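To assess whether the prediction recovers the assembly geometry, we first specified each molecular entity separately, as shown.
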Amino acid sequence: MKATAIAHPNVAVVKYWGKRDNVNFLPMNNSISLTVDSLYCKVTVEFSENYDKDFATVNGGAPEQKVMERVLPHLNRIRKLAGIDLCARGAVETNFPIGVGLASSSAGFAALTAAACAAAGLKLNAKELSIISRQGSGSSCRSIYGGWAEWLAGTHSEDSYAVQLARENHWDIRLITAVVSKAARKVDTRGGMEIAKNTSPLYEARLKAVERDLPLVRKAIKDKDFDALGKIAEHEAMLLHATAITSTPPLVYWVPETVRIMQEVLALRSGGLETYFTFDTGANIHLICLPENEKEITLRLKEMPGVLQIHINKPGEGVKLVKEHLF
Ligand code: DP6
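The predicted structure of the complete assembly is given in tokenized form:
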């Protein structure tokens, strides 16, 4: 009763930012994302009668309590589905910092769901995994799939899941992640989206823009229209942060390096180099570009003060089970 899964984070070009049902994790709007390849999260889960409590390690150390507070209800959900009551041992390995706006929960919960369901003996298809994963962390329902995925908001738990819009080999595109901060956020994503939804006067305006943008993004992906995709992705990210900074209390996720990179992207574009930025609830930033511009953009980022790590991502695979366990 042991299984291991690897999943990759996904970065949304139309964002999930607010729930209309906090119990079932139903989102306010459909969202569209790209699963990336170079960032990963590997999770091993074992259910056994040898364990008398649930316990886990994250990158070799003890997990933060708030992580376990999210993981345990999810494990219970899976145990209930499988009709087992065994305790579990878990281990998590990532190649990027967690809880800093790099979509760690999307990869983490997708891998946890696939590993725990397999360890519990559940044989599920992608849609079923997506539904279960969503209830652990919303955005993870998109990391079940490789390439481009859309999370259909749905009306109740059974019709709120992600579908694949295009496979990872559909479009050779790059998402260059610049890590500029590994410091924990003061307000996490879950708290931030609730505050923005309840207090930002711009929240409704953002939802209107999302409805306008969804069909345009689907078309841009289908037609491989880089300009159209980049413009909307960047604007979407700005809309999210517009609601964040106009929340009460204000949520400012950026640091000076984030803004410096945004300005560099704008300067590069006015000099004729097509690249666009996006970010989630953190200081770290992703630059979207075509393969021919990857080298130049990476070089520019390397020259910038405060850039701690650079990850060059291509479209990545969906969650998969692997044989090499972490323990
Ligand atoms: C800003 O999936 O982390 O990254 O469902 O509360 O666990 P919970 O939130 P989470 O939110 C991610 C939001 C986002 C945008 C996105 O990925 O769509």
